[in-house]
Amino acid sequence: MSSQPEPGTEPGSGRPDVLVHRFRSFDFPFQASFRDHFTILDPWTDSPDEPADAFLARRAGGARALVCVGPTPLPADTLRLLPSLQVVIGTSAGVDHIDLRECRRRGIAVTNAGAAFAEDAADYAVALLLDVLRRMSAADRYLREGLWLKNGNYPLGFKLGGKRVGIVGLGNIGSHVAKRLQPFGCDIAYNSRSKKPSCPFPYYASIHDLASNSDVLILCCALTEETHHVINREVMTVLGDRGVIINVGRGSLIDEKELVQSLLQGELGGAGLDVFEDEPNMPKELFGLDNVVLSPHRAVITPESFEAMRELTISNLKAFFSNEPLSCLVQHK
Amino acid sequence: MSSQPEPGTEPGSGRPDVLVHRFRSFDFPFQASFRDHFTILDPWTDSPDEPADAFLARRAGGARALVCVGPTPLPADTLRLLPSLQVVIGTSAGVDHIDLRECRRRGIAVTNAGAAFAEDAADYAVALLLDVLRRMSAADRYLREGLWLKNGNYPLGFKLGGKRVGIVGLGNIGSHVAKRLQPFGCDIAYNSRSKKPSCPFPYYASIHDLASNSDVLILCCALTEETHHVINREVMTVLGDRGVIINVGRGSLIDEKELVQSLLQGELGGAGLDVFEDEPNMPKELFGLDNVVLSPHRAVITPESFEAMRELTISNLKAFFSNEPLSCLVQHK
């Protein structure tokens, strides 16, 4: 160990600095295991009474690596306080909360944790779809209100087999969704930025065309400027009054006001929503609808996937400090 | 067409008699399409003010075929009124409501509609499992009560991948369940009356041993004298406090009183129940549990499977009257 520590390394520890960027209300439950390998700089733990930006300016100027916890916004203003930053390790699947343009301009590498969460997200998409079609949550509420005995059978749902399922975004999550839905007898098609050469499913370059040829749309794509409100009223209209939309991506993929109107007016068959435009607020009009399943942004989260995310984050940080290739790169530095 | 009609054939019509046996409250929605091929004898339509048994004695003595709608009991006493009966076509997957011993003694063939319903039942079993593990119905209730904004995140569930799933009864439904769960990354094992020679999954001759080696039990077997209360307290205990039971078979496969106690005492991790011992009554203690998903005996039912059941029933009746082989035989005559 050199007696003259590297910049961005706590003197005497030999462990490189890693800045933890998080909402004050967000836990960072893996601190202990991270501290075995890195010197953790965490404003909310190290200096809770100081404004976070002041802490960053004072203490994090030499930090080369930042872990961005969950959807904590990382705007250009914050990045400007970190002149030595070379890598942003995101712990969520989406990275729309990170100013990717500024990172690209600065040559900062960005990774996400999509690989750790993809299976859980795909499981949840299938579960939401089954729930909407077969009306399970609604039937469960019906029983708990004692209505089976009182009012008799609950209305039937629909069979999953034979449904034409359009997957919007055939990345990690979308591919896992497709693999899971095939044994149910669904006909899969997809939309994506580009056609996947080795993919056996029909490709539609436009979401409108995919919707015209689908009974169900499952949204698994990233939220970008291009995909903001990509599910607009016109797409809902062509999907039709038996059509179902499942969203495990981000709330703003859908024009939520139009979604609520389509559902209230019976112009859309149903929806399974894990994400909303203004979480944890959500349109109260949905609370009265039995053809809608609501979920508090947790498709990707299980204890098992948290553990996979922890392992991925540590291995990516180790790779960075050893000049080895990073996993799950969103963009190269 | 002979001028002297066959016994059990309405004079002049040429269409053979088919007796419809149903609870008065049960619809028989396919009457019209059946009447194209058969003369339907239905006490509740033909003679609603006459006791059903009197109608059978007076009118159905020559009937060779009976369609048993849903779980309408068909005991020996009713069978005795039908001396010419040669076939019972069940329209449900289970046939525990039919006196199979009496049918066997009389040489009456019995068929079920398992093939028409197996995919829906398997879909529902997977859906219930995902719901219990990921706590979707419970999270949906939490949101509808406005608690996301008020109390923050809802507790996490568990990942389906990697779970050891023991299927009890690897028939039509169980095989479809296994096929669906494999892409989720589950480890499948099974219990059945006998080992299936060409099946790749580990076989356990005892349910106790299957439970000891499983995180989840999915009940897809028929209810018989041997399987009554086959899930007893001991099986629940070895399954353990993280273990989950899914039942899409019949309520009495489980000792329901013991199930309620195991769940209330936290000795079992969760349950997804489509069936109960005394439907539509059910243990009210379950209403307060968030690790339980309740469903009003509808795993097998969608409009699509109703249509498949209608086709199977008509084709089996036609086969019977043409002396051709029957599908979905429970027992030969």
From TrEMBL, chains A, B:
What cellular component terms from Gene Ontology apply here? cytosol
Q: Report which superkingdom the organism of origin falls in.
A: Eukaryota
**Gene3D superfamilies under this entry?**
NAD(P)-binding Rossmann-like Domain
Descriptive protein name:
Glyoxylate/hydroxypyruvate reductase HPR3
Q: Name one GO molecular function term.
A: NAD binding
Under the heading Pfam families, the entry gives: 2-Hacid_dh, 2-Hacid_dh_C
The record's family statement is:
Belongs to the D-isomer specific 2-hydroxyacid dehydrogenase family. GyaR subfamily.
Q: Which UniProt keywords apply?
A: Glycolate pathway, NAD, NADP, Oxidoreductase, Photorespiration
| Residue ranges of every copy of the D-isomer specific 2-hydroxyacid dehydrogenase catalytic domain listed in the record | 52-327
The lineage, from the top, is: Eukaryota, Viridiplantae, Streptophyta, Embryophyta, Tracheophyta
The coding gene here is LOC115737098
Please list the GO biological process terms of this entry. Answer: oxidative photosynthetic carbon pathway
Q: Which organism is it from?
A: Rhodamnia argentea
Q: Which residues form the D-isomer specific 2-hydroxyacid dehydrogenase NAD-binding domain?
A: 126-299
